[in-house]
TrEMBL record:
Pfam families on file: DUF3417 (PF11897), Phosphorylase (PF00343)
UniProt KW keywords: Allosteric enzyme, Pyridoxal phosphate
MF GO annotations: glycogen phosphorylase activity; pyridoxal phosphate binding
Protein name: Starch phosphorylase/phosphorylase / glycogen(Starch) synthase
Keyword Nucleotide-binding applies: no
Modified-residue entries (N6-(pyridoxal phosphate)lysine), positions: 616
Organism of this sequence: Sunxiuqinia elliptica
Residues spanning the signal sequence: none
Protein family membership: Belongs to the glycogen phosphorylase family.
GO terms classed as biological process: carbohydrate metabolic process
């Protein structure tokens, strides 16, 4: 080519246009014959089915581990050549078809579901590590519950948020500092698919923010036969700020949390509406985060059924259940009323309320300046429950401000103790033993305690071998996991070697892993380091502790604690004896709970609402050693674990910590270590194996999600659904009647006059056991029906300055009426000696109310 010789004087600046990116989805190139793998990879059912997991592992063990057991990524990364090999591998093909058939049969058997239709709402779901939409216990519980709902054929649909980054991945620096890394999820690599409407359009919902709408797209995750719908705001339709709404779980500021909760509650109901699920019988609000579901449903009923706000509220309450999960204040979200008003000021007009009337839904008293989501949830729910027997009682104290005049123990707040999903958390090796001794159909008969009792028939040798084997697997796993991460952070190779040498697959191994919230008291074990050193360094009877857990990025105290444990673990006397493994996730939890001998839990009583990790342990023959708090109050049996007493001995926390630490050391020195190392002639610790058997026979069966969902059905879903149906019938006839009755009562209540109150002399002085003392009350009811008002005497005992406790509550009989006057009488006789207090009160009576606090009027006379 000929070139001009003069130089180029000027080159024009180019105008390059921006590429017009088009979406391109490249599906992995899986041969037709292997197509079932694709469907298997997209239903999280594989995560709790042992055969399905084994099948994926067989495709390529190395990639399977590298991609942290994410089958979608696995199928993308496996070479075409490997697929071709598999296609002609008859064994593999027949296994694949068997697993595929299992899934198809499983789904077919669940075409017909049992019980009321439930819409379940939660801020987080822990289903598998590859779907990063959970942080800890609350999420894992919700995830386990969906799996169980599927297994138990419950008619349940779930709603949550799809986070771009989810919760953080934890790494620990050389100095022991926790570093939080957020990794973006690519939604094509996780088991979610766009949820489409009947016309094949991707479903979107809108929520109003000040001056703009927020758009959210809907995704579906398949959890066996249950659908989990997830809202995602991270796409072009929203501005940068709003896209952030679904970036982080428990991240951002309080305003962002409010935006998230609006999306979950208001948006969640809108999504169900578009999906045709808004007719559910029960709306289950898992923690207060989703409480706005009630607001949206009320607005819908007002707009579509021409109900008044009060009538709609009656209907919504009947069909809503609120589960509260923690007594710790940080677990109860509240928003300053100015912030709340900025976002919600348009709402009251929709239901013809004033702002002041509306905002009381989230307050216990008008002067409060925060809107509390737990209060909102409680006010819009007929059923309320805590997550263990003890936590049910504790929750009564927390929610008491909403029910003036009642003693906390009178409140209609129940409980369902949390459980864990057997198939997810039980080691394959244990599942095999259970299958062999409990029978083929055990999985479907988990509630049958007699089956679990057969564990006593299993030879000690078989159980001990299994336990040794699982411990060895854990030690291997831990060595691998910490070597990788320690090399990455440039830890001294000498130290790595020392730790690896010291870790002992035959030593008594204790696990402690959970969120590093201060109330969990991970520091307790370290109060006396000399004593701890003696315990772990006994050459004849070595002991090792493995710690793991994340602290919330804003929780400095929690992070300090991690640093302290990391520092201790590097002291010469503790190298390989105390180990902190980073990034506690479901897989690590599984390995730990299946492999350790003891699971240690030392919360400050009564702040552990339930706790579930110990429950995962007991089904794996891991003995539980815990403060009697949460589920362990119900679970502990002598000879099946160890317990620190329920009662606090000291008000000063530091003294209590000292006492608890002392008790822990004593138990290790005098009971636990000797029992573990007391071997018979076959080198089996007979008594220890006896403990394992007791644990499986007497504790484990009570703490499955199978038992848990049955309790929810019996105590809440079924009775509430039955009443809710009655409220709906005949164009909401009963709901309107009850509302009108309540309205009438409210209008007159304050005018009711006490005309006479007579009590026999004895009562005011000293009364004798067994004798009768007449009492009489005359009220001017100002036109209310006498049967609508009850009168009762409340007798309490008051020790010290605690809240009085209820001894007895006796209702007066309606004796007669005279115009507007009604006379109530009672013959009181007490049967137990003691010093009591008494008072008389009147209350609204109506058989159609589900419980007393459903109509909060109450007056002491
Ligand atoms: C089970 C589990 C939890 C909850 O444990 P608690 O004992 O309730 O604190 C937290 N994180 C992970 C990864 C779990 O598997």
């Amino acid at each position: 080519m000929e070139m001009k010789t003069e130089g180029v004087r000027f080159i024009k600046r180019p105008v390059v246009d921006m590429p017009n990116w088009k979406k391109l989805f490249v599906e992995s190139n899986i041969p037709e014959k292997l197509a079932p793998l694709k469907e298997l990879s997209k239903n999280l059912w594989w995560s709790w089915n042992t055969e399905a997991r084994d099948l994926f592992a067989k495709i390529d063990e190395e990639i399977w581990d590298e991609c942290a057991h994410n089958p979608i990524v696995l199928l993308e990364q496996v070479s075409y050549q490997r697929f071709q090999e598999l296609e002609s591998d008859e064994v593999f093909m027949s296994e694949m078809h068997a697993v595929d058939k299992q899934l198809q049969d499983y789904l077919t058997a669940r075409k017909n579901t049992l019980g009321p239709k439930i819409a379940y709402f939660s801020m987080e779901y822990g289903l598998h590590d590859s779907l990063k939409i959970f942080s800890g216990g609350l999420g894992i519980l919700a995830g386990d519950y969906l799996k169980e709902a599927s297994d138990s054929k419950a008619n349940l649909v779930a709603v949550g948020l799809l986070y771009r980054y989810g919760y953080f991945k934890q790494t620990i620096s050389l100095q022991g500092d926790q570093m939080a890394n957020y990794e973006a999820q690519q939604f094509s690599k996780i088991p979610v698919q766009p949820a489409m409407d009947a016309d094949g359009n991707w479903i979107q919902v809108e929520v109003e923010y000040p001056g703009r709408p927020l758009y959210a797209r809907l995704w579906e995750a398949k959890v066996g036969a249950v659908s989990l719908y997830l809202l995602d705001a991270d796409f072009e339709a929203n501005n940068e700020n709003d896209r952030f709404v679904t970036h982080h779980l428990y991240g951002g500021d309080n305003e962002n949390r409010l935006k998230q909760e609006m999306l979950l509650g208001l948006g969640g109901i809108r999504a169900l509406k578009k999906l045709g699920h808004v007719n559910a019988d029960i709306f289950h609000c898992n923690e207060g985060h989703a409480a706005m579901i009630g607001l949206e449903r009320i607005a819908n009923l007002v707009a579509e059924e021409q109900l008044t706000y009060a009538e709609a509220k009656e209907v919504v309450r009947a069909s809503t259940l609120f589960t509260t999960h923690t007594p710790v204040p940080a677990g109860h979200d509240s928003f300053h009323q100015d912030l709340f008003k900025m976002y919600m000021n348009k709402y009251p007009a929709k239901v013809s309320l004033s702002w002041d009337e509306f905002v009381m839904l989230g307050k216990a008293a008008p002067y409060e300046d925060h809107f509390n989501m737990s209060f909102l949830a409680a006010n819009l729910s007929q059923g309320i429950n805590g997550v263990s027997m003890l936590h049910g009682d504790v929750s009564k104290h927390i929610l008491k401000p909403l029910y003036e005049g009642y003693l906390s123990e009178e409140l209609n707040i129940g409980y369902v103790t949390n459980g864990v999903h057997y198939s997810t958390w039980t080691a394959k090796e244990w599942k095999e033993i259970h299958l062999k001794y409990f029978g083929k159909d055990f999985i479907n008969n988990q509630l049958d305690v007699d089956l679990w009792d057969k564990i006593y028939k299993v030879p000690d040798q078989e159980i001990w071998n299994l336990k040794q084997n699982l411990r060895a697997k854990l030690i291997d796993y831990v060595k691998q996991r910490f070597t990788d991460t320690w090399v990455k952070r440039n830890e001294n190779p000498k130290l790595i070697g020392e730790v690896k040498n010291a870790l002992n697959p035959n030593a008594l191994t204790i696990g402690f892993a959970r969120r590093f919230a201060t109330y969990k008291r991970a520091h307790l074990l370290f109060r006396n380091l000399d004593r701890l050193s003696k315990i772990v360094n006994d050459p004849e009877r070595p002991v090792q502790f493995i710690f793991a857990g994340k602290a919330h990025p804003a929780d400095k105290a929690g992070q300090d604690l991690i640093r302290y444990i990391v520092e201790i673990s590097k002291r010469p006397e503790f190298v390989g004896k105390i180990l902190f493994v980073q990034n506690y996730d479901m897989n690590l939890a599984k390995q730990l709970l299946q492999g350790v001998d003891i699971w240690l839990n030392t919360p400050t009583r009564p702040l552990e609402a339930s706790g579930t990790s110990g429950e995962k342990g007991v089904m794996n023959g891991t003995l539980h050693f815990s403060v009697l708090d949460g589920w362990w109050v119900e679970g502990y049996r002598e000879g099946a674990g160890w317990a620190l007493p329920l009662e606090r001995s000291y008000d000063v926390q530091d003294f209590q910590d000292e006492l608890d630490a002392e008790t822990i050391y004593n138990l290790f020195e005098n009971e636990i270590v000797p029992t573990f190392y007391d071997r018979n002639e076959h080198d089996i610790p007979e008594e220890w194996v006896g403990f394992i058997k007791n644990t499986q026979a007497q504790v484990a069966p009570e703490f499955t999600t199978c038992r848990m969902i049955r309790d929810y059905q019996d105590r809440f879903y079924k009775p509430q659904a039955e009443r809710s149906q009655r409220l709906h019938a005949d164009n909401f006839k009963l709901a309107k009647e009850i509302t009108s009755w309540k309205g009438n009562l409210a209008a007159i209540w304050d005018d009711i006059e006490l005309k006479e109150l007579e009590i026999a002399d004895g009562i005011t002085n000293a009364i004798r056991i067994g004798e009768e003392y007449p009492a009489k009350v005359v009220l001017d009811l100002k036109g209310l029906a006498p049967a609508d008002v009850g009168v009762e005497i409340v007798i309490t005992e008051n020790e010290g300055n605690d809240e009085p406790t209820l001894v007895e509550c006796k209702e007066f009989d309606l004796e007669g009426t005279d115009g507007k006057l009604a006379t109530y009488k009672l013959n009181l006789h007490l049967m137990h000696p003691g010093a009591y207090s008494y008072a008389i009160r009147m209350f609204p009576k109506n058989e159609q109310l589900p419980h007393r606090q459903d109509c909060k009027y109450l007056r002491w006379l």
